[in-house]
Structure formats: structure tokens, C-alpha cells
Design goal:
InterPro entries: Colicin-V_CvpA (IPR003825). By secondary structure, this protein is an all-alpha fold. It has eight helices and no strands. The chain is 79% helix and 0% strand.
Length: 201
């Protein structure tokens, strides 16, 4: 185990304890809001990425930064040339733009939904917490921790492809738990699968 494994375990333990302390109903509100934020980000991130690419110079700045750094084997399985891109640097730039867009929309949606959660919690008078309520809250806390880690890895993986952040890539590959969060990372797969479409458009 390395420092990434300890971070993963810490996130899970803290989230489980927090969920147990708050109870099932509070955690249910939170999980619904978290899931809704991911769904909203999934639906609209492409639009934001296209706007940032065509209306700002963020992608040019990113491309310049990436071109100054060598690519590690983190992206060795990706073949952008076969998909019509001129080089892997452009591909990684587009992937990062997608990740940035997912992050921004997720945060905006999460803030708005959190305000709604607060109102709902004031409206509904919650019962005194029972042991079952605590246990179910801990279970939802565990589920939330997994989603948080998947989201975190989706943002981290593009950086790990650059030599400047080689220590992150090395830590991820030597970690016992990391493989579960990048191998089955559906959020990062969104960013990968739509990169070519954004480039063409």
C-alpha cells in the first residue's frame, strides 16, 4: 500500500462515519443530490466544453502546457492517430477540457441542489435516529465515497499522463486500490469517448 491507498481508505472511512452520524434520511437526500449532479454534468458537459474551446483560449493554453511535457505510458493504450487526430497532445487536451467541463457543471449543480436539500430538510421533520437508520446511513456514506473517488480519479488521470506529474502515475500504478477507480471509471470514459466529436465539431 502507498499514500494513495491511505487517502482512498481515509475518504471511505470518513464518509462512512459521517453517513452513520447523519443517518439514512439525511444521507438519502445527499445521495439523490449527488447522483442528480452527476446526471446533469453528463447531459451538459459537452456543451460547456464546446463553448470553452470555441469561445475561449483555455484549450490553447492547455495544449501549450501539455506540449512542453512528455507523455507517460498512462495513455499508451489510446490511439488518437487511428481516430483522426493529428497527435496525442490534442487528444489529451480535449480529454482535459471535457473533465474541466464535467467538474464545473457538477459543482454548479451540486451547489444549487444543496440549497434545495437544505430547504427540504427544514420542511421534513426527521425522526430520532435509530440503529438501523445509522447503519443505512453508513451504507449510503460508503456509496458516496466510491462516487467521490471515481469523480476525483476522473479529474486526476489526465494529469497523470504528463511527465511533470509522473509521481502520481507511479503511485496510481503501484496502489492496491487505484485500479478499481480508473479501470471502471465511467466519468473518465465520457471524457475520452467524446473528445473526438468535440475536435471535429
Amino acid at each position: 500500500m502507498n499514500w494513495i491507498d491511505y487517502i482512498i481508505l481515509s475518504v471511505i472511512i470518513i464518509s462512512v462515519l459521517y453517513g452513520a452520524a447523519r443517518g439514512f434520511i439525511y444521507e438519502l437526500f445527499s445521495m439523490i443530490g449527488f447522483a442528480a449532479s452527476i446526471i446533469i454534468a453528463r447531459k451538459y458537459y459537452v456543451n460547456l466544453a464546446e463553448f470553452l474551446i470555441h469561445k475561449t483560449k483555455v484549450d490553447d493554453i492547455l495544449l501549450g502546457f501539455i506540449e512542453k511535457n512528455k507523455i507517460t505510458e498512462a495513455f499508451s493504450t489510446i490511439e488518437p492517430l487511428e481516430k483522426g487526430l493529428s497527435n496525442i497532445y490534442q487528444y489529451i487536451t480535449l480529454v482535459i477540457m471535457n473533465c474541466i467541463s464535467i467538474f464545473l457543471i457538477f459543482i454548479a449543480a451540486r451547489i444549487c441542489i444543496s440549497l434545495l436539500e437544505a430547504l427540504l430538510k427544514e420542511v421534513f421533520k426527521l425522526p430520532v435516529l435509530s440503529n438501523i437508520n445509522h447503519s443505512l446511513g453508513a451504507l449510503l456514506g460508503f456509496a458516496r465515497a466510491i462516487l467521490i473517488l471515481i469523480f476525483f480519479y476522473a479529474m486526476l488521470m489526465p494529469l497523470a499522463s504528463l511527465e511533470k506529474f509522473l509521481f502520481i502515475h507511479e503511485a496510481m500504478t503501484s496502489s492496491l486500490l487505484s485500479k478499481y477507480f480508473y479501470k471502471y471509471n465511467f466519468i473518465f470514459n465520457w471524457a475520452l469517448n467524446t473528445a473526438l466529436n468535440i475536435f471535429i465539431s
